[in-house]
TrEMBL record:
The keyword Cell membrane applies. Belongs to the protein kinase superfamily. Alpha-type protein kinase family. ALPK subfamily. SMART domains: Alpha_kinase (SM00811). This is Alpha-protein kinase 2. Keywords: Cell membrane, Disulfide bond, Immunoglobulin domain, Kinase, Membrane, Repeat, Serine/threonine-protein kinase, Transferase. It comes from Leptosomus discolor. Residues 159-199 are annotated as: Disordered. It catalyses: L-threonyl-[protein] + ATP = O-phospho-L-threonyl-[protein] + ADP + H(+); L-seryl-[protein] + ATP = O-phospho-L-seryl-[protein] + ADP + H(+). Residues 187-199 have a biased composition (Basic and acidic residues). Pfam families: Alpha_kinase. It is found in: Basolateral cell membrane. SUPFAM superfamilies: Protein kinase-like (PK-like). The lineage of its organism: Eukaryota, Metazoa, Chordata, Craniata, Vertebrata. GO terms for cellular component: basolateral plasma membrane. Residues 168-181 have a biased composition (Polar residues).
Length: 199
């Protein structure tokens, strides 16, 4: 439960910086907000710790998909979805590819229950709660949109293709050897691997 709070509130701080950079840009408009999550200690209860956050009412949408295999048209085509993708790209670039905010989901521009993937060593002492593979999948699947361009973010396509070519060249030289319209309570969403909490 503590890790869940730490991850979401860390992502929230990145989102605040992103909004401060993006919102003043002409034509950008509102940026996504990650709502805060609070840890509550209830010593008299059988489960003494719980998390509390604002209830989001409306159409709950997953804007980023964890395994990268699902196509989400609301992510690709909606303003909120595009801005979430740009937020991921912005964080990835700001942290030199060491950290990625993932599992972006919520109602409109208000997001909750996010995850963070970091490289194995972590980033500035912080280790995320999602697989490192999400970073590689993001690099391979992200398509820049107009909001990425407004922020001047570098395309990941060319970087990823160069890395893949370099890897394939090295391997040739090596010897052969071994969407629902209603209020969705937090407990109804998919639980994250190895993190349990009561909501």
């Amino acid at each position: 439960v503590i890790q869940e709070c730490y991850v979401q509130n860390t992502a929230r701080e990145y989102a605040k910086i992103y909004a401060a950079e993006a919102e003043p840009l002409e034509g950008f408009g509102e940026a996504p907000e990650i709502i805060p999550i609070f840890l509550v200690h209830r010593p008299a209860n059988n489960i003494p710790y719980a998390t509390v956050e604002e209830e989001l009412v409306g159409e709950f949408v997953k804007y980023s998909v964890r395994d990268g295999k699902e196509v989400n048209f609301l992510r690709r085509d909606s303003e909120a979805g595009q801005k979430c993708c740009t937020f991921q790209h912005w964080v990835y670039e700001k942290t030199n590819g060491n950290l990625l905010v993932t599992d972006l989901q919520g109602v409109g521009m208000k997001l909750t229950d996010v995850g963070i993937a970091t490289l194995a060593k972590g980033y500035k002492g912080f280790k995320g709660n999602c697989s490192i593979s999400f970073i590689e999948q993001f690099r391979a699947l992200h398509q820049c949109n107009k909001y990425c361009e407004m922020l001047g973010l570098k395309s990941l396509r060319t970087t990823h293709q160069k890395q893949r070519k370099a890897t394939s060249m090295k391997s040739k030289n090596l010897p052969v050897s071994s969407t629902i319209k209603k209020t969705v309570p937090k407990k109804a969403r998919e639980p994250r691997d190895f993190i349990s909490s009561e909501h």
